[in-house]
Amino acid sequence: MSGPDKPLTDDLGEAVPLRGAPTRVVSLVPSLTEAVELTLPGIVAGATDYCTHPDALAAPRVGGSKYPDVDAVLELAPDLVLANAEENRKEDVERLRGQGVPVWVMAAPATVPSALRSLRALFTGILGTGAPDWLVTAEELWRESRSPAMTAVVPVWRKPWVVLGRDTFGGDVLRRLGVRHAYSADDERYPRPKIGELRELFAAGKADVLVLPDEPWEFTADDGPDAFPGVPYTLVSGRYLTWYGPSLVEAHQALSAALTTVTREVRSAR
User: Fold this and answer.
1) Which terminus of the chain has fewer Cβ atoms in its 10 Å neighbourhood, N or C?
2) Domain range summary for the chain, segments of one domain joined by +
């Protein structure tokens, strides 16, 4: 593997002035941590507290994505830091760059293909590798979209209720598997509707099912469905719904199975 001999740019067009192929990467994004460590084992020298995959990752922790300990990042002497425009703060990125640390910032992906394009650019350009096998497989699996079979409300938080809105990666995952989400045309990416508004969508037949991920809010059979008596629901892995990386290969089959089951339940109730 040979590194680039001139500055490259990230998704936002900012220069990433590498001095060769990175060997010590600090990732501030759980999805990117998994993608990079599985592809290049041992390269991740630091990660956030929320970087739960790969399971065996033993890298030092540098706090959360929104509020990382920048001093701890600098102490790890990374030759590259990975960030995301939505998950990480601009001021932290600028401080790292001000200390001479190259930072690659991924744009917040609105679709599965846009996320995969960013990952391909990261591996083939910044990290100097070819596209990993899991990326090629994910590109093939997620290329097509199914015809919509039902409409879902997709909460990602409770107290207050927050749902998937327009231009979200998770929304596009569902769309490609044949599920519209009720707030896809909302002005906000993450609307905060009142519970009464959400219940009315089901009462009026404008939504058919609840899709409840286990992160960032950990929805369970006892926490989430209780607010919507009688509404069909499915519990899904938040990692499968919102992470962009190797999990997308497993996610296609796992989410398809869960959505097929609840679709049958919805149809039998009609």
Assistant:
1) C
2) 8-122, 144-269
